[in-house]
Specification:
Layout (H helix, E strand, L loop, with lengths): L9 H23 L11 E2 H8 L3 H9 L15 E2 L1 H14 L17 E6 L7 H14 L4 E5 L5 H5 L4 H4 L7 H4 L12 E2 L5 E4 L6 H12 L6 H9 L8 E5 L6 H9 L2 E6 L3 H23 L8 E6 L7 H14 L12 H8 L14 H25 L3
Parallel strand pairs: 3-7, 3-8, 4-6, 4-7, 8-9
Antiparallel strand pairs: 1-2, 5-6
Bound molecules: adenosine-5'-diphosphate and magnesium ion.
The site of magnesium ion has 5 residues, from helix 5.
Length: 394
């Protein structure tokens, strides 16, 4: 915009910038998504399908040959294409004939409590949204019933699911409605189905800020349940429907984050391995501990199954990064996840079109670039899956 010399009026300038940006974003969104079309999930090749199902491609082919599983769509060249629904259906058939129960449907069983994971850090850009959506999608592809909860007023997660938070949930429909102090709605009423089989979404949006503003007053008026218990209380209505609930937290340690934490069974702290981020994480951990002490003394339940540091934007050939990672591993040993999320242009490029690695087509990318990013994200999710299984005593 204007580049005049001298003084200018900051509020006018910012308003102009806001309007320009908003118009540009609107046209970008129109280009990315057709005006009224919701997102749709692509199909998966036989190789991808077998990997997701955890079987070999030859076994998958044999099952088709033996007519153990329904036929799926095929290209004109005869290559099979699997939708996420196909995969779930095949997974269920595999489970029925499996020798050990839970080989293919690995979600919770009777008596297992729902696993609630918070992706956390007060550093913006550390990969909370990226890691939480990839984990949610991979777990859903692996047959888990997932609820993704966006508690960031910036609502990036909601946007990634193809919603336009500033239009779709302007007045109502965000998670705020389920935890607000006056007339909260049942959680089930704010849940949205998504284009991604196996994932439901509790949307975020700017309205969530209200919770931060209203909580001090609610505390003075002793409104029950208090902020830290409201998310857990609201979730109770729907948690039977899910194996895993994933919170994408805002980059701050406010009441929303505390409320998600107090509902959680596991925490993943995303960290970019450079010294500035590690220093800021040190403050973050200190503040978290102080705040958690306060809510714990007030009666919050603080029983967790696990806490892990998840290294993001990892560059294996970067010497200084290696040192920081070694430092973290020495300090926190098992609490640092074995698999890091690689820094990858496949991840950031997919993000530019509001997509994930699981949504984009491999052919859109340089093969090695795509495969390396996919492998790294799969390894991270597999490790998370192991933590879930362990929490369920398996
Ligand atoms: N491993 C990665 N490699 C490349 N880009 C990444 C990676 N992780 C995140 N990004 C990009 O960095 C930006 C910030 O990530 P995001 O997950 O939104 O962070 P946060 O939610 O913590 O603010 C996004 O544009 C995302 O696409
Ligand atoms: Mg985010």
């Amino acid at each position: 915009m204007p580049s005049e010399q001298g003084h200018f009026n900051i509020n006018t300038r910012i308003r102009e910038n806001a309007e320009d940006l908003s118009a540009a974003l609107e046209s970008h969104m129109l280009k990315v998504f057709a005006p009224d079309a919701r997102k749709a999930l692509r199909t998966f090749s036989a190789g991808e399908a077998a990997e997701i199902l955890g079987i070999s491609t030859s076994f998958l082919r044999k099952m088709h040959f033996d007519e153990k599983i329904p036929d799926v769509e095929a290209t004109s060249g005869g290559r099979r294409l699997y939708s996420a629904e196909n995969l779930l259906e095949i997974r269920k058939i595999l489970e029925v004939s499996a020798k050990t129960k839970g080989s293919y449907m690995r979600g919770r069983r009777e008596g297992d409590k729902v696993q609630v994971l918070s992706f956390l850090n007060f550093k913006g850009g550390s990969g909370k949204t990226t890691s939480s959506i990839h984990a949610a999608q991979r777990l859903a592809l692996r047959g888990y019933r997932v609820l993704a909860v966006d508690i960031d007023p910036q609502a990036s997660l909601t946007t990634l699911f193809g919603y336009r938070p500033e239009m779709d949930f302007l007045e109502s429909g965000t998670i705020y409605d389920a935890i607000r102090y006056d007339d909260p709605l049942p959680f089930s009423q704010i849940i949205q189905k998504t284009f991604f089989t196996g994932i439901d979404l509790a949307p975020g949006g700017l309205l969530l800020q209200e919770f931060e503003h209203e909580t001090p007053q609610a505390l003075r008026n002793n409104i029950q349940p208090p902020f830290y218990a409201r998310m857990a209380a609201a979730l109770q209505e729907v948690e039977d429907n899910y194996d895993v609930i994933i919170f994408d937290c805002p980059p701050q340690l406010g009441y929303l984050t505390m409320s998600a934490l107090c509902a959680s069974t596991g925490v993943l702290i995303t960290i970019v391995p450079n010294m500035l981020d590690v220093a800021s994480m040190s403050q973050f951990l200190q503040m978290s501990a102080d705040l958690l002490d306060v809510v714990s003394n007030a009666g919050a339940d603080m029983q967790f199954d696990f806490l892990r540091f998840l290294i993001n934007r990892y560059e294996p050939n970067d010497g200084p990064q290696q040192q920081v990672v070694a430092f973290l591993r020495q300090l926190f040993s098992d609490e640092v996840m074995i698999a890091p999320m690689l820094k990858s242009t496949a991840i950031s490029d997919a993000g530019l079109t509001q997509q994930t690695i699981y949504e984009v087509e491999r052919a859109q990318f340089h093969r090695n670039t795509y495969d390396r990013a996919l492998d790294s994200l799969n390894l991270v999710s597999d490790e998370i899956e192991m933590l879930l299984q362990k929490a369920w005593g398996r």
